[in-house]
Specification:
Layout (H helix, E strand, L loop, with lengths): L5 H7 L24 H19 L22 E6 L2 H9 L8 E4 L11 E4 L1 H4 L9 H7 L9 E3 L3 H16 L4 E6 L2 E5 L8 H19 L3 E6 L2 H10 L5 E3 L5 H5 L12 H9 L5 H6 L1 H9 L1 H12 L8 H4 L3 E11 L2 H22 L2 E11 L4 E12 L2 H15 L6 E12 L4 H10 L1
Parallel strand pairs: 2-4, 7-8
Antiparallel strand pairs: 1-6, 1-7, 2-3, 5-6, 9-12, 10-11, 10-12
Helix pairs in contact: 2-16, 6-7, 12-13, 15-16
Bound molecules: 2'-deoxycytidine-5'-triphosphate and magnesium ion.
Amino acid sequence: MRLSNPRHIRRQNPFLQPLEELPVEFRPKEKLVYLTPTIEVLFCEEYINFKHCGQYSVGVSEEQTPPQGSVSSHERILVHCDLDAFFAAVEILHHSLDPNKPLIIGSDPQAGRGRGIVSTCNYAARAFGIHSAMPISEAWRRCPGHPFGPGHYIRGSRGLYSRASRRVMEILQAPAEFFEKASIDEAYLDVTKAVNGDWDAAFALCRALQDTIEEQVGLTASFGIAPTRILAKMSSEVNKPKGIFRILPDEIGDFFEGRSLREVPGIGPKRATQLAEWGLVTVDEAYVHGELALGRMAGERFASWLTRVVDGTTSAEVSPLRSRKSVGKERTFSSDQTDHEAVLEVLRSLTQRVLTRSREMGVSGRLAEVKIRYTGFETHTHGRSIPVAMDEPEVFLRLAEHLFATNVQHNRGLRLVGFRLGQLDMPPTRQAVLKWNEEE
Ligand code: DCP
Ligand code: MG
């Protein structure tokens, strides 16, 4: 059944009901009563309960997306995108550096005595054997910095990376039916619908996305296309940098032939050594033993998981909830604040921004958490859960204000304040709701 009048549906669904249509006793008041936060929160919870009551009473129509778990993984076309030498590429772009000179981003090398690690480095530095997570002193030994060698060492600037990441994610999100930012430089896209189940069209889509990212942001990205998450992630590594690699459902076996077990995300050095002791170095060597025999060597759980990886039956779900447990924002003040009213104003704005962000992601949350750091770094978090996940700024503004007002220690300087939305959820109605709104 196709629902032709979205406005009609909206009125039926109390979850979407405009505030002014609610019975007067449930309508939030214009002004917050900061001095009586408990009453406000009680009122707030009543309001949530009221809305919650109606949430499941509405039939959502046949258009509702079936739960992802029920979809056979072979029916999905997933894309994993990972930016190439991300932090280094952004720095090179921003400071117009020579990409052929080794650039290492990480903690201060202190002429080889530094104790931190390498965050990342460009491909010129990788030629010296430097890689992410290597001790910075080791990187310096392999490729010293000025005046001893060609290495260019910088600490890096997070703000630059977040901005670049956001621009890339906007480009990637557009064609995806389901989208998941998995880290600052990688994302999963379910493009099954966008390409109408056509694997060639998926390849062309990735090429187009790659070009757009390069033209609009100036960064290169690698793409993997496959029927499951883990296979898509592994494929994006295959032709890095600026590569695209595709594993069709009937090519999975070939893909794993001769491929080192160590290349499978989730198999660490310890596990790889254990398997090597049994003479198993490649995935196909392990797989041919069969789940039972492999289970006796490496444990049943591992054997079952590896078998499913090669059979292409591991998860194909793309959802922001997989990569993210909470959405939060905080602000550190340049000097400690004693005006708590001013801090509360900052907290309100942070809360508002968190809720805007969570709405963009299509997630709601049950937990409101306020973080307060006092002069001297003493840090406290104060949380409160509501009965059902919501994404309404109004609700969380009240909770944030309440948590702050009842917990802040008076006469103390404040160094930082933050808000976090936790216990995330994605309402079953969400996909359908978004679709209706788009049609308006
Ligand atoms: N990063 C970090 N510390 C690490 C690993 C990574 O700070 N131990 C940061 C820097 C990377 C970014 O995360 O630029 C993305 O990590 P990747 O593993 O995707 O590495 P790169 O994008 O740098 O390189 P590649 O081209 O291999 O993806
Ligand atoms: Mg990367």
